[in-house]
Design goal:
The chain has nine helices and seven strands; from the N terminus they run E-H-E-H-E-H-E-H-H-E-H-H-E-H-H-E. Strand 2, helix 2 and strand 3 form a beta-alpha-beta unit. By secondary structure, it is α/β, with parallel strands linked by helices.
């Protein structure tokens, strides 16, 4: 029987790459997405033909919808041994003085509270399967970014969540880790100009941009690294050293 991985944000560039990588390495998939069914359908076509999968369309900020999605997961696929938090939002760059409570609340609801809720609801499953949680933070969660204060704060909070939960769940055999990507061209940053993207490339010591597959490979590593927990793995080409 294949181990089961629940991947949130499966309609995104990084979430989709993670799902594909896990399927290629023997996982059955529960694919959460909010509304972009076309992207998930395209992903499914790229999966190995023998991959069991389940679609879980839901808004992760809706506790009732999340509870129903978990019931569906249990009934139709089973209990996950891997939980990947790849869903996230990033508002446009702006001065902190231009933000408001509503924007900050939205960012924290998706980037922090949603993964906390989902992990809490699946904690018994993860203890039973001796599973692993991998959350996607950001290099800005490690060092902060001007004009991205709300986003940086949310990703830093996610790192704090990972470190604390790793200590709490370690005696149960559950590992909790974090990947902090550098700049990866995806739909989340498609609004940036070519010149701005080039600035990121030049600022990266490895002199290239990241790819979704770079992040997926790091997630796969952490799922298999049995003596690694509570860690933040920077996958950023050397920007944060």
């Amino acid at each position: 029987m294949k181990p089961i991985a629940l991947v949130t944000g499966a309609s995104g560039g990084i979430g989709g790459a993670i799902a594909k990588k896990l399927a290629e390495n023997g996982y059955a998939l529960a694919l959460q997405y909010r509304s972009n069914r076309a992207a998930v359908d395209a992903l499914i076509k790229e999966l190995p033909s023998d991959t069991p999968y389940l679609l879980l369309p839901c808004d992760l900020t809706d506790a009732g919808a999340v509870g129903e999605a978990i019931r569906t997961l249990h009934e139709r696929l089973g209990k996950p041994s891997a939980l990947i938090h790849a869903a996230g939002v990033a508002p446009k760059q702006m001065l902190f003085s231009e933000t408001d409570d509503a924007l900050c609340r939205q960012v924290f609801d998706v980037n922090v509270l949603a993964p906390m809720r989902l992990t809490r609801l699946l904690s018994d499953d993860l203890r039973e399967t001796r599973g692993c949680v991998v959350a996607l933070s950001s290099m800005w969660g490690v060092v902060g970014a001007s004009c991205e204060v709300a986003y940086s704060a949310s990703k830093a909070a996610l790192i704090g969540f990972v470190k604390a939960l790793a200590k709490e769940l370690a005696p149960s055999g559950v590992r909790v880790n974090c990947v902090a990507p550098g700049f990866v061209p995806t739909g989340m940053n498609a609004h940036l100009s070519a010149a701005e993207v080039e600035d990121f490339r030049q600022a990266t010591p490895l002199e290239r941009l990241g790819t979704p597959d770079d992040i997926a490979a790091a997630v796969l590593y952490l799922l298999g690294a049995g003596f690694v927990t509570g860690q933040v793995l920077s996958v950023d080409g050397g920007i944060v050293i």
